[in-house]
Automatic annotation (TrEMBL):
Domain of life: Bacteria
UniProt cross-references to Pfam families, sorted A to Z: Pyr_redox_2
GO molecular function terms attached to this record: NAD(P)H dehydrogenase (quinone) activity
Similarity section: Belongs to the NADH dehydrogenase family.
InterPro entries: FAD/NAD-bd_sf (IPR036188), FAD/NAD-binding_dom (IPR023753), NADH-Q_oxidoreductase (IPR051169)
GO biological process: aerobic electron transport chain
Alphabetic keyword roster: FAD, Flavoprotein, Oxidoreductase
Domain FAD/NAD(P)-binding, first and last residues per copy: 7-333
Protein name (Swiss-Prot/TrEMBL): NADH dehydrogenase
Coiled coil: none
Cofactor(s) demanded: FAD
Length: 448
């Protein structure tokens, strides 16, 4: 790399960061992609990995492999923790908890969002979210282990709690998880146990609204309600999950009334998202406004007011009409790269315009929803359209081929070939490198 060329630093290797770097691969700039996992994750298919449909390799790809052919792009493993806008540098944390600094001329913040527990961070111990590969593997372990433990228990409340699965949140991820778990119970595991009948497993979905998938057209949402009920998912609307424990949850009606208690050993949380801590730090340092979730207010070209060299894209971009979906991140990444190229050419930047490419949600084998403009598709046709839509966006030819093969096989068979999970050995010390707890939410002051 040439240090005489403009230096572009991209924080995050998700859809926004990936598409931005790709568009700059032939530009006269030096690009650094800084990511805490050094890999790109196709997050919309995480639940397929969590429930054994797809493997890790089919929904993720190393960034070094992705950019190996591009000499002006380098990737670094580290988590951004501090911004110095005067020196134009970012401090990053290595997995061994030492730090290093990366300088930039242009900064693209594409760090994404993380799971929000709405101020109840203690829920995370018993209710994993669905944002990372670790989350997917954690859920896979909890899901299949629950059936294994139930097999060893006599009939009664304890066995029932292990065969009860609660999902908090009725958005696409919650709907997809609930449908998949029910399918695991009724089809995948139906004939594999002797003491229990997996089909008797209860799947409970809780949401504060009056229907699932509220961002979809009402007719599609109601079809999703009906499909979930036909699968055996128990829908509970107008409620909030207000406590999560080792052996159960508490649910509180929004309009008042007595709390309800549900015995369950497996709780999955998809009820909200919030900005990562670095994004909040960026907003504070730059004096930028944020919304309640921590999204940073941006101008027409997706830059922060007073800092034309700092772009904020994807889920973190706080502007009306920008949804937290992969397509917005992709388009934002392409837009930021276009602005950088226009700057190099001495041409004015164009404002960012998001183009809605539609929404899709998978419910179960043969059942999905697709909404593109006036087009509304559900059932089997929606399922086929869902598959084509997601495969079209997968990164890397090898990923597309392997996922197409798995998906086509799933049309003929409902089996899940990636159900393996590890529980670990009690006598082995944890040898993994890990980031420190710096990015965890700060504890509330005592007495609150």
């Amino acid at each position: 790399m040439s240090h005489s060329r403009p230096r572009v630093l991209i924080i995050g290797g998700g859809f926004g960061g990936l598409f931005c770097a790709r568009r700059l691969s032939r530009a006269d700039v030096d690009v650094t992609v800084l990511d805490r996992a050094a890999g790109h994750l196709f997050q919309p298919l995480l639940y397929q990995c969590a429930t054994g449909k797809l493997s890790i390799g089919q929904i993720s790809r190393p960034l070094r492999e992705e950019f190996a052919r591009h000499r002006n792009i380098r990737t670094l493993l580290g988590e951004a923790i501090e911004l110095d806008p005067v020196a134009r540098s970012v401090t990053a944390l290595r997995p061994d908890e030492t730090t290093f600094t990366v300088d930039y001329d242009v900064l693209v913040v594409a760090a994404g969002m993380r799971q929000s527990y709405l101020g109840n961070e203690q829920f995370a111990e018993w209710a994993p979210g669905m944002k990372t590969l670790d989350d997917a593997l954690d859920i896979r372990q909890r899901l299949f282990t629950a059936f294994e433990i139930a097999e060893t228990l006599p009939p009664g409340p304890e066995r029932t709690s292990w065969l009860t699965f609660a999902v908090a949140g009725g958005g696409p991820t919650g709907v997809e998880l609930a449908g998949q778990i029910r399918e695991v119970a009724t089809k995948t595991l139906a004939k594999e146990f002797h003491s229990i009948d997996p089909e008797e497993a209860r799947v409970l979905l809780f949401d504060g609204g009056d229907r699932v998938l509220k961002t979809f057209a009402p007719a599609l949402s109601l079809k999703a309600n009906d499909t979930l009920r036909e699968l055996g998912v128990e829908l509970h609307f107008g409620v909030h999950v207000t406590d999560v424990r080792r052996d159960g949850i508490t649910v509180t009606p929004k309009q008042g009334g007595p709390d309800q208690q549900f015995g369950t050993r497996t709780v999955l949380w998809t009820a909200g998202v919030e900005a990562v801590r670095f994004a909040r730090h960026v907003a504070e340092v730059l004096g930028a406004e944020t919304d309640r979730a921590g999204r940073i207010t941006v101008g027409p070209d997706l830059t922060v007011a007073g800092h034309p060299e700092i772009f904020v894209i994807g889920d973190l971009a706080g502007r009306e009409g920008l949804p937290g979906v992969a397509e917005n991140a992709m388009q934002g990444g392409l837009h930021a790269a276009s602005c950088i190229r226009r700057d190099l050419a001495g041409r004015p930047r164009r404002p960012y315009r998001y183009r809605d490419l539609g929404s899709a949600a998978y419910i179960s084998h043969g059942h999905a929803l697709l909404q593109v403009g006036p087009l509304r598709v559900s059932g089997y046709a929606g399922w086929v359209a869902w598959g084509l839509l997601h495969i079209a966006f997968l990164t890397g030819v090898s990923n597309r081929i392997s996922t197409v093969a798995t998906w086509l096989a799933s049309i003929a068979r409902t089996g899940r070939y990636h159900r393996a999970f590890m529980l670990g050995a009690g006598d082995r010390h944890d040898q993994r490198y890990t980031y420190s707890s710096w990015d965890l939410p700060e504890p509330a002051p005592e007495g609150n």
